[in-house]
Design a protein that fits this description.
Length: 109
């Protein structure tokens, strides 16, 4: 019985941590050629209620959107917003790293 209770406690703790893990959507974007381009995309992404932070790297053509705890955002929504702004998403991935980590990684390249 004690083993069952211990296992249940561990599983519950793991699920509660997973529910509040950082989620960042990272998109590779074609067509961004100037700071105005980057600023336009950043403004659209920051307007979303799910958004905690946004990072746009013009040189690497990366747009990263960190979500607030417990929030979700579909890849299609991100793609559509970027497409509506006049740019093309070539790939998209989900990261468990916060914006600060992605920014440091991109700026070290």
């Amino acid at each position: 019985m004690k083993k069952l209770l211990l296992a249940s406690t561990i599983i519950a703790a793991l699920f509660s941590q997973a529910a509040f893990a950082t989620q960042t959507i990272k998109a590779n974007v074609n067509g961004m050629v100037c700071a105005f381009c980057a600023q336009g995309i950043e403004k659209k992404m920051r307007a979303l209620s799910q958004t905690k932070d946004v990072y746009v790297n013009l040189k690497q053509r990366i747009v990263a959107v960190e979500l607030k705890d417990g929030q979700t955002l579909s890849n299609d929504t991100v793609k559509d917003l970027i497409k509506d702004a006049g740019y093309e998403v070539t790939s998209i991935e989900i990261s468990s790293h916060p914006i600060e980590h992605i920014k440091a990684e991109m700026e070290s390249k």
